[in-house]
């Protein structure tokens, strides 16, 4: 009887201790649905001469109690955000303007915030042709400190996109002065990286001018990095 009592006690202890070490569930990234990536959004409801209300949608993500919609005007870099427990939210945004949008997932039981992919789109306006989306820096990350390679070079890498898919060139500007005014030349659309010579201890600035077949251009804005 004594051995039975000890066995039962140990079993109760194991059960009571088990399952408590997993910690809170980490939210998963939401999958974006609409507006489509690299598209023209024509479903906005006009609210004024310059604004239309667009409804953003995404798929529900696991272990998520709330979402934060992040929408950035790519011409001004001004963000708009809204939090919701739903899988859609509406914002009034500028017509005829490029935007980037993403969704952050959070869980009441966890401090971790997980972000979705970032998609680009144009909110429809009166124009019939659109400039390319401003190029997005991939590497180096703006504000970062990087190491040069054995040839004393760093590779600039970016992403380019266009609603009509008619980008013809990227022009690379690079300098240790802000803003960079020295053009290193144009590269074809199949190329989205460029090697530059650098010196340790110097902060460098770069940007990309994207041009399409209609002659429309977009300015990426200035990115910067320091060489260690």
UniProtKB/TrEMBL annotation:
What is the protein's given name? Fibronectin type-III domain-containing protein
Q: Which domain of life is it from?
A: Bacteria
Report the InterPro entries cross-referenced here.
Answer: Ig-like_fold
UniProt organism field:
Flagellimonas alvinocaridis
């Amino acid at each position: 009887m004594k051995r039975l009592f000890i066995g039962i006690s140990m079993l109760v202890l194991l059960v009571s201790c088990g399952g408590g070490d997993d910690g809170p569930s980490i939210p998963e990234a939401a999958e974006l649905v609409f507006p489509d990536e690299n598209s023209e959004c024509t479903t906005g409801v006009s609210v004024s001469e310059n604004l239309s209300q667009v409804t953003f949608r995404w798929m529900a993500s696991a272990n998520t109690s709330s979402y934060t919609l992040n929408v950035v005007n790519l011409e001004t870099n001004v963000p708009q955000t809204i939090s919701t427990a739903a899988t859609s939210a509406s914002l009034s945004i500028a017509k005829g303007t490029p935007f980037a949008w993403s969704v952050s997932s959070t869980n009441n039981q966890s401090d971790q915030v997980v972000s979705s992919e970032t998609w680009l789109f144009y909110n429809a306006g009166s124009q019939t042709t659109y400039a390319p989306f401003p190029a997005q820096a991939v590497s180096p990350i703006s504000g970062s400190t990087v190491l040069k390679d054995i040839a004393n070079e760093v590779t600039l890498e970016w992403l380019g996109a266009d609603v009509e898919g008619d980008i013809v060139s990227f022009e690379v500007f690079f300098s240790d002065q802000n803003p960079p005014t020295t053009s290193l030349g144009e590269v074809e659309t199949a190329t989205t990286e460029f090697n530059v010579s650098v010196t340790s201890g110097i902060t460098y600035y770069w940007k990309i001018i994207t041009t399409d077949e209609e002659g429309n251009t977009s300015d990426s804005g200035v990115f910067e990095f320091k060489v260690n």
